[in-house]
Amino acid sequence: MRKVLKGWQQCYYHFLAWRWLLEEPYSAFMTWEFFSYMNNEIQDTFTYYVSAEDYKRLLETIENPPPLAPALTNLLNRKTPWKTDQ
């Protein structure tokens, strides 16, 4: 009985993923992810091709990231609630 319920649950989740894919704007990555999720034989990774100019801009952004927002810096500097001074 558990296997039947598990099968129905998986079927329902597949339907939800398919419906979400159709409702959202087209994305090559999301389409690839959906079909690779449905087909366990797909082992390839998703490859996204960019122009040389966009690649150069990507590398520049990675090497020189924008400064952190002050609110994020304050959050990261806060003491975590589970740490104690003892």
Features of this protein?
86 residues, single chain
Q: Ends: how far apart?
A: 52 Å
The total of helices stands at 4
Please state the CA-atom Rg, rounded to the nearest Å: 22 Å
Number of domains: 1
Average pLDDT for all residues: 84
Task: Describe the protein.
The chain has helices at 2-23, 28-38, 52-63, 70-77. It is mainly alpha-helical and 86 residues long. The longest helix is centred in the N-terminal third of the chain and has 22 residues, at 2-23.
Break the fold down into its secondary structure elements and pairings.
Elements: H1 2-23, H2 28-38, H3 52-63, H4 70-77
Helix pairs in contact: 1-2
Brief sketch in words of this structure:
This protein has 86 residues and is mostly helical. The protein is built from 4 helices and no strands. Helix content is 62%, strand content 0%.
